[in-house]
Amino acid sequence: MMKNIFNGGVIAVLCSSLLIGCTKLDEKVYSSIESKNFYNNKREVYQAALRPYTHMQAWLAPTGQNGHFYHSELAADQLAWPQKGRHGYDGGDHFRMHYHTWTANEGRQRDAWRLMWQGVGFINNAISDISNVDLARLGMSVEEHETVLAQLRVLHAMHYIKLMDMWGNIPIVTKVADPINPETKSRAEVFEFIEKQLVDNVEKLPLTSAQTIGQISKSTGYAILAELYLNAEKWSGKARWDDCIAACDKIISGQGGGIGGAPKLANDINSLFSNTNDANPESLFQFQFSRKGGFTFEWGGFFMGYDNIKDALKVSYGGWNSFVVIPTAFDAFAENDLRKKDWFLFGPQYKYGTDIPILGTEEYEGKPFVYVNSIRKESKGDLTSEGSMADGEENSGARFNKYKSGTTDDPNYQENDYIIYRLTEIYFNKAEALMRKNAGKATTEAVNLINECRKRAFKDEDWSKAQYTTATLTMDELLAERGREFIFEGKRRTDLIRFGKFTTASWWDHKATNDPNKELFAVPYTQLNLNPNLKQNPGY
Prior knowledge:
This protein has helices spanning 2-5, 8-15, 42-60, 68-74, 93-99, 107-131, 135-138, 142-167, 187-201, 218-230, 232-236, 241-252, 300-303, 310-313, 327-331, 338-342, 423-437, 444-454, 460-466, 475-486, 492-498, 525-530, and strands at residues 79-80, 170-171, 184-185, 283-287, 324-325, 344-345, 347-348, 370-371, 399-400, 418-422. The protein is built from 22 helices and ten strands.
């Protein structure tokens, strides 16, 4: 398992390895040792193959960097990073994300481009090196060799899905520094390339099991295919609902394996995000983190308040007091929805296990601290306006509490893994594909799939009214329930685009742009200047 492999020493060695450039994807040669002779044993090959996973955590997980997660959530209708008094304006970066007024000169989008293409470079380099190793010298079988390469190629496809999601029309690069200036390909061409990579390699992957936790495995591959086909109409121009359903069925039936056998839904809404979630049977792919191993899932930057909130949770980490839940997104949860109670910090905050109030440090300095479902200057008497991105205060908005690290005296403190694909998402994907095949109307099977997931969020006495029927599960309601179930999981922008709402809907302080060009981000100007073969996306 990767938690055992990624000790501090190994991470230090891997992080000092070759860095790949952002656009030219070239390398600096430090040694004339041939790659086929570089590895001394099979373990070193596996360590090289795992390097791209550690880098991927920088841009896909909510660890404070400006990657896919930041852009997927802050451009959508559930989370915002408003200015709070003297904090958080940051040159207007987060305002432009919320209002969809970003340009081709955004520093955070440059960061995302750099981080994500760097990941592609790591994978291309690993594939190149590992393809040429002397198997006999390393004691590695042909099957083991093919499996490692298949995992890397599927991981490559996953990187490309996220790149295509953000920028659409991008280069296709499979070799380091070849070509030096790759040319832009259409999103349809990129889609075809991704699909071929997946189809050619998914069946070569190992079955998902306790031994593959944290690695690309067969159920992971099917989940990536399901995501590709669910978004195919937008990404390639052709709907692929049957293919999406087929990929989902392979996971649900157990054909791809699962942790502990076939995958199964978690019994409750919290265990999958707990500090003992490393072997949860619902997970299909996760990043393995471990405080004990020196590689902690650091979500505090985006999701924790200032240091005064440490005492509310009895933890050792504070944050930037940055991401808040948009009021309309919090209102989308019914009062009897257990997710509203368990996945957010809201209302008066007390020192852990006591009735001693946490005190504010900014607008409410020295006063009892209360998270409110508004983003406006209530300390100055504004109790009625809708507020704005410029009007936040230290206590504005409900806050993240979906992942729980435990308290500092918990033996599993901060041992949480970050879940990327889970069985619930597969149920939702299949249900949506079934409904879209049925002219947007819910089928009995679609309703059953969503209800099977949703019922965990309600007490038995509330379930009869909370469950869906074929009449109440409309497409709009499916999108709303996706929002509730996957809040804080980095998926919302893609969902809004697929449902036709990203540029046409308004929410809180965001007014619809009705500009379809905003469904893609701009290729950063710096990259256009570096590579004359890149083309800017329409509208920029």
